[in-house]
Amino acid sequence: MVFLCGGKRVKASKGMKATLRYLAGMAGPSGYGSNSTAEQVTEDCFLSSHLTALITGGTSGIGAETARVLAKRGVRVVIGARDLKKAREVRHNIQKETPKAEIIVLEIDLSSFASVQRFCSEFLALQLPLNILINNAGIFSQNLEFSEEKIELTFATNYLGHFLLTEMLIEKMIETAEKSGIEGRIINVSSVIHSWVKRDAFHFHHLLNGTKYNGTRAYAQSKLANILHVKELARQLKARNAKVTVNAVHPGIVKTGIIRAHKGLITDSLFFIASKLLKSTSQGAATTCYVAVSAKTQGLSGKYFADCNEGNCSSLANDEFEAQKLWNNTQALIHKRLRQASS
Which segments cross the bilayer (predicted)? Predict the structure, then answer.
């Protein structure tokens, strides 16, 4: 792609091309782009009526939209939420639109290992299959806060809670895939800002302690961890010949509560300009829904998707050694804390 700039021909960089495609809403190889909505990307998906999807953070934003659209396509949806009142409102609204939708609401606080354990016990007691796990919930905190395990709250919620949730449900997913013959799919909702994290600033113990805390950096680090989780889990699942895939998605910059939390850090005028580039909630949920149910993503694992197309994550996010190291540190930490809690 070439542009005229001051009479000179200037070749567009990869980044510039991607930005222009995003702004124009141009479709990529999948046939979809930044303007595609969750309903559009699932229109031609012929889904088994027995699919079950579990979504964290399904009470607002892209989580609620993902739940709505999957339910509309006939998927049984389990919403894991901190706020049960909000979750029941979402269920009510979905069932008004899709009366036959089966929506199950269960309480979970992803910052709490004990809560994640309770949630998994309650879910497994239902004896449902589990075809799709969408690790969607996320928080952004401007101020340093800690979980009940005394771990920095953003990292505990966005990454550690989802790591434990996935670990406790992975055998159910593998079993479901074997019995049904339908590929299981895990989706970690990440963010393009994972690429802001520098290698020398990504230290496990600093992440736990909130050392030199900065809200945006903490959020970016948690989203990098989400991708590294995907990379290592994909490797392990492949080694087991499990019929379960795991991928990361960048939903785009969406008009959600997390964006509102950032608003205080920038001027109103800049926020107004930026807001014109933000995706709608339905556009934001599109990539998650596409990766969760499209036939075009069959067999793809350990990938990173943006605007419903396979994309490129940072070199640090692609580092297999870093992914394995994070996995080992995470597993050791969680198992230690769970042993302490039970003793």
Answer: none
**CA–CA separation, 338 vs 315, rounded Å?**
33
Q: Tell me the C-alpha distance between 224 and 316, whole Å.
A: 8
Closest CA to 22 of 212, 241, 283, 200: 283
- Cβ atoms < 10 Å from Cβ of 251: 26
What contacts 121, CB < 8 A, 6 or more positions away?
Answer: none
For the annotated catalytic residues, the residue numbers are 213
Residue 286, Cα to own-chain centre: how many angstroms? Answer: 12
For 124, the token pair is: 């497994």
pLDDT in tens, 142-193: 999 999 999 999 999 999 999 999 999 999 999 999 999 999 999 999 999 9
DSSP state letters, 269-336: HHHHHHHTTPBPHHHHTHHHHHHHH-GGGTT--S-EEETTEE----TTTT-HHHHHHHHHHHHHHHHH
Q: Where are the alpha helices (DSSP H) in the chain?
A: 14-24, 38-42, 61-72, 84-97, 113-125, 153-155, 161-180, 204-209, 215-239, 257-262, 268-275, 281-284, 286-293, 320-342
pLDDT value, residue 27: 85
Q: Whose structure tokens read 């290992």?
A: 113
Q: How far apart are CA 125 and CA 127, in angstroms?
A: 5
Q: Are the C-beta atoms of 231 and 163 separated by less than 8 Å?
A: no
Question: Which residue is it, tokens 């509309």?
Answer: 72
| Residue 77 contacts residue 58 (beta carbons within 8 Å) | yes
Pairing, β 52-56 against β 76-81: parallel
Closest Cα to residue 149, out of 164, 134, 130?
164
Nearest-Å Rg of the Cα atoms of the chain is: 20
pTM > 0.85: yes or no = yes
DSSP string computed for 153-177: HHHIIIIIHHHHHHHHHHHHHHHHH
